[in-house]
Amino acid sequence: MVLRVAHFWPATAMSQKKVLEPWCATITEQSGGQMTCQFYPAMQLGGTPAQLMDLAQDGIADIVFTLPGYTPGRFPIMEVMELPFMTIDGEYSSRVAWQIYQEFAQEEFAMVKPLAFNVHDRGQILNNRRPITKIEDFKGLKLRAPTRLTNKMVEALGATPVSIPMPALTDATSKGVVDGVVLPWEVIPTLKLQEVARYASEINAPDPVLYSALFTISMNKYKYEALPPKLKKIIDDNTGANFSQQLGRTWDEQITTARQKIEDNGNPINQIASDEVARIQEAAKQVEADWIAEMNAKGYDGQAIVNRAKELIAEAKQAKDAAATTN
């Protein structure tokens, strides 16, 4: 059985090389070759990145790796993981994302079989206008952000959000269509954005993460249900909370290398001080309040979802700190 695996990144991207290919190698080995993967990077099965979930739902692809946020309003509950300053990292926060899915969001993903949810490493800021050291430095900048809530955050900080597909970002930045981006460091060298945007600013621990975008690896539900029990078990054994955490860890592991490439290009990387982070966090609180109100209007208990996410993140931080102490 050949599983068609589709995503929007190039074939050389971390998401295929360090996530999908090792995962597929594992299920191929454990199934004795009964399950293998054929990769379709860069939307080779047609459509746009926003249509990847439809490709999985309709069976055009068997497995997709994408962002639910590419279709705003379709997966509202899982947006909680994209609220400003919600997460702490990729690894432990991704396990929380899976827990939120299990507790609140199974119905909104009922058309597919989710295999994992993850968030990336810390979202940071790169621009070609000026160093960002305080909230006032955002004012007037045109910034590309990846999701609906990140766009709202950018606006709350005084910048103008601009929606541009990721493949067009480098050209748009070099031509001044946007002044910069909010992205994890891992993406910057892949797109060579450090060559067209000079100033980098970051928020690091112990301060919370500026923003995260949520990803999912999801499978066609009927393809999964048609598997014999032995192959279903192999899929189940290699997905879920542990797989989600592993995905987040893969993103975290890219930070040092990607950051070094930015520095090697001569880009100054500015650390935003904790007191300024607090000011940015205060300004971004309205995004959370608006999201809760939106969810309430849709018939959900928005505050309960936010409270639970924060509770799980606090537990995750304790687990992360304990693991660091042990190691």
Low-confidence stretches: none
Strand order of the largest sheet: 7-6-8-5-9-11
By CATH, the superfamily of the largest domain comes out as: Bacterial extracellular solute-binding protein, family 7
How many independent structural domains? 2
CATH topology of the largest domain, by name, is: D-Maltodextrin-Binding Protein, domain 2
Instruction: Kindly provide the radius of gyration, computed on alpha-carbon positions and rounded to a whole number of angstroms.
Output: 19 Å
Average pLDDT value?
A: 96
Report the portion of residues in β strands.
Answer: 15-25%
Q: What this model shows, in words?
A:
This protein is an alpha/beta fold. It is built from 12 helices and 11 strands. It folds into 2 domains: 2-119 and 213-253, D-Maltodextrin-Binding Protein, domain 2, CATH 3.40.190; 123-210 and 265-325, Bacterial extracellular solute-binding protein, family 7 (D-Maltodextrin-Binding Protein, domain 2, 3-Layer(aba) Sandwich), CATH 3.40.190.170. Helix 3 (91-105) packs antiparallel against helix 9. The protein is globular.
Summarize it.
This protein has 327 residues and is an alpha/beta fold. Helix content is 44%, strand content 16%. It has a six-stranded mixed sheet, sandwiched between helices. It has a five-stranded mixed sheet with strand order 2-1-3-10-4.
